[in-house]
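Structure tokens please, single chain.
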Amino acid sequence: MGLAGGGLVAGIDSSTQSTKVLVVDPETGRVLGEGKAPHPVTGSEGARETDPEAWWAALREALAQTGLVRRIGAIAVGAQQHGLVCLDADGRPLRPAILWNDTRSGPDAARLIDELGGPEPWATGIGTVPVPSLTATRWAWLRRVEPDVARRTAAIRLPHDYLTERLTGRGVTDRGDASGTGWWSTLTEGYVDEVLALPSMQLDPRLLPAVLGPAEAAGTVRPRVAAELGLGESVVVGPGTGDNMAAALGLGLRPGVPVLSLGTSGTTFVVSERRAADPTGIVAGFADASGRFLPLACTLNCTLAVDRVATWLALDRDDVAPSAGLVVLPFFDGERTPNLPEASGLVIGLHHDTPPGAILMATYEGALGALLDALDQVGSCSSGIDPRAPLVVIGGGARGRTWQRAAARLAGRRLRVPRAAELVALGAAVQATMVLTGEEPEAIAERWGTQDGTTIDPDEVSTETLVRIRAARTAAASSGLFGRSFS
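Here you go.
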């Protein structure tokens, strides 16, 4: 089942703060080479931006670190979703990319909802109700705040599209990442003229990339680019996809298996046989990268919030004590779920004798509480969550002892922590293999053993903690402590 000539596959993860590359044996799934390079994020007061040229430079550096560039026969890119990349007529970025966690487009999201007639037509017709992270809201913001840049824009790309186009010269995307824009529909599997024509949008569809199928090659690496990167001739490039879709490919997820991803942001998702349409806006009704769907909910504040509190308190991450009724709502960067882009963090229930470790524990619980509530909604909007399946926990936090124990305790179910690391890059490698062999991703992932790992049972179940967190969140929102909501 290997590639002709014994070629290897490479998966790229261009995430918010760095680019990772894995070079993998397509027969065994063994990772033979790795590379990682950072790229900067700039901005304050809600702004989060990166120069797309930094992504390319990081990709080049991370590839070189693997030491196996000449043996790569196929490559695919998984990348952070939703980012807006505006290109001029020569394919050069007109400004830094606006990233997924930029919250400045909150008013634009609210305006777009109203212009289409409310949340219901967005959910039923597109699959996702606009929140400040969606690409469509970034374009509306750009037209309002930087109209000259909008007028000069000759092409719009997502982060993974930009890198794929640099490799192949083709302006293409995939259905998974396209479903996170707000202008591509999981119902019609195409761009939506009605959305593109909204007063806040006024977007010519010719600026958008073509949407490829799950195993459709984007092309081959251009000779000039191959020479720049040190690649051999005729390296095939997969369609690429968004980071969450790539992680699902890397795991070979079957429908009904729930996932909790604990990273800088937190996400929860499940592969579904039917599309999701959630007018509350909690669940984004994404497509996946296998031809099915990936209902997903995302929070902005997860491991980074816990690390920040630990730093403030001069504690190690695992220096926790029972929270004992204390509630921390760690919405330090605003929040996406619940949709509170102007929120700040709150600590509720402090006493003179509250130990620092209790505050840290409550921060873990506050971050997990938002995610687990979102998981319930994901289940109700999908073809269902298998009650017998363990909760698969991935991301940097999945390796943390306190994250594991707190997640099992609050979820009240068995956890599965895969040994496989860098699942986005691994999923991109799965996609590269799909393009070359025609295999289904589940078969590839099963052969590679990507879900093998540790099983963790809860020491106890503490549903009262979730009840307390929900009550605190509701009270704070109703009293206006979080600022304005765009729900």
